[in-house]
Design a protein that fits this description.
Blueprint: H1 3-13, H2 21-40, H3 45-57, E1 66-67, E2 74-75, H4 77-89, H5 109-119, H6 123-150, H7 155-158, H8 160-171, H9 176-187, H10 200-222
Antiparallel strand pairs: 1-2
Helix pairs in contact: 1-8, 1-9, 2-4, 3-4, 4-5, 4-10, 5-6, 5-8, 5-10, 6-8, 8-9, 8-10, 9-10
Length: 237
C-alpha cells in the first residue's frame, strides 16, 4: 500500500467509540482554544479583508452554509473555513505541536466546523474527524517536519491542507478509496512559505489549508481522483 492509502485506511476506519474520555476532553479544549483565538482575532485587518472577499465571492445555498465565528455572517462552507482560519491564526496564539513545527488545530477546526454545520454532523463525529486529522499531521511531520520547515515551508498550511482533507473525508464518512483521493487532492493544493511571516499572507495560509482541505474532500465525494502515490513516489510530495 502507498502511504496515502495507509493513512486513508486509518482515517476511514476510525470510530467515535475508539476515542477515550481523555481524548474527547483534549478535543474539547482544543476547540475552545481555537474558537477563542479566532474571536480575539476577528477585528484584525486580515480578518476584515478576508471576510470582505468572502462576502463578494459567493452566496451560500440555504441547505449548505456555515457561519463566520466573528459575527454570524452566513457564508459557503469553503469561505467560512477560509475566514475562520484567518481569524484564528492572525494573532498567532493558536496551539502548537512540536513535530509539525506549526499549529494543528487551526488547520483543522475551521474546515471541520464549517462542514459539520453544513451537513448537521454530530459533535462526536466532529471530534473523531479532528482526531483523524491530528494523527495524520503527527505521522507525516514526524517523518519530515523538521527538514520541511527548515527549507522554508509553512507546515501549518502545507501539511495542514493534507490533514484537513483527510479529516473532512472522515466527517463525510468517505471510504478508504475516496479518502485516498481526498489526500491526493489536498496535496495538489498544499502551499505556504515562511517568507510570508509578518504579513497578511501568513494567516491566509492557515485559512487556505482549511478551504483547500474541505474542497478536496468534497471533490473526492463527487468522484474526483488523485494518484495513490502522491506522497512518496517520484515527483510526488
Amino acid at each position: 500500500m502507498k502511504a496515502a492509502q495507509k493513512l486513508a485506511r486509518f482515517v476511514s476506519e476510525l470510530k467515535t467509540d475508539d476515542l477515550s474520555p481523555e481524548v474527547l476532553q483534549a478535543c474539547s479544549r482544543a476547540l475552545l482554544d481555537t474558537y477563542a483565538v479566532a474571536i480575539a482575532g476577528r477585528n484584525e485587518q486580515a480578518s476584515h479583508l478576508a471576510l470582505a472577499y468572502a462576502k463578494r465571492s459567493a452566496a451560500p445555498l440555504p441547505d449548505f452554509a456555515a457561519r463566520y465565528w466573528g459575527n454570524d455572517e452566513t457564508l459557503t462552507p469553503e469561505l467560512a473555513a477560509l475566514c475562520n482560519g484567518v481569524a484564528g491564526h492572525v494573532l498567532d496564539y493558536d496551539d502548537v505541536t512540536s513535530p509539525m513545527r506549526g499549529h494543528p488545530s487551526i488547520a483543522l477546526f475551521p474546515a471541520l466546523i464549517a462542514l459539520a454545520e453544513a451537513t448537521d454532523a454530530s459533535g462526536a463525529d466532529l471530534a473523531c474527524a479532528y482526531v483523524a486529522g491530528f494523527e495524520v499531521i503527527c505521522k507525516l511531520t514526524k517523518v519530515f517536519g523538521v527538514q520541511h520547515y527548515a527549507r522554508g515551508w509553512h507546515s501549518t498550511s502545507t501539511v495542514g491542507t493534507i490533514a484537513a482533507a483527510a479529516a473532512c473525508a472522515r466527517l463525510l464518512e468517505l471510504n478508504a478509496s475516496q479518502t485516498t483521493h481526498a489526500i491526493g487532492l489536498g496535496v495538489s493544493q498544499a502551499a505556504g512559505c515562511r517568507v510570508q511571516f509578518g504579513t497578511h499572507a501568513k494567516s491566509f495560509q492557515a485559512g487556505l489549508s482549511n478551504a483547500s482541505g474541505l474542497r478536496a474532500a468534497l471533490l473526492a465525494r463527487e468522484g474526483f481522483e488523485a494518484a495513490a502515490g502522491v506522497l512518496e513516489d517520484t515527483f510526488g510530495y
